[in-house]
Design a protein that fits this description.
106 residues; elongated
């Protein structure tokens, strides 16, 4: 599956636009990581545990996006983006989205 943040694929012809696809997850932080993050924020620096969870979540939503695109007959996703938002005080929504297409190499 080709994934591009661009709106086109140089060297490819878009044969069909299939439509919007996305992958989504909602994660909650456990109390231990919240306390650790709160303490770390007092002195500054990277929150390595939170970074690891976010990276894992991005990988997961990208996999879900690819599965949806493939199930609809796409071989590429254009205009790929991530979006995150807070839901309440402890939940984070992570979404990957883009436009599924069928592309052919020129």
């Amino acid at each position: 599956m080709l994934i591009s943040t661009m709106n086109d694929l140089p060297g490819y012809e878009i044969e069909e636009v299939i439509g919007e696809v996305y992958g989504l997850t909602v994660r909650s932080r456990n109390i231990g990581s919240q306390l650790g993050a709160s303490l770390k924020s007092l002195v500054g620096g990277e929150l390595k545990g939170m970074t690891k969870v976010l990276a894992s979540s991005r990988d997961q939503v990208t996999e879900r996006l690819v599965e949806e695109a493939a199930s609809r007959g796409a071989n590429a996703v254009l205009a790929f983006r991530f979006d995150t938002s807070e839901l309440g005080s402890t939940w984070t929504e992570i979404c990957a989205y883009g436009t599924a297409v069928r592309a052919r190499k020129r």
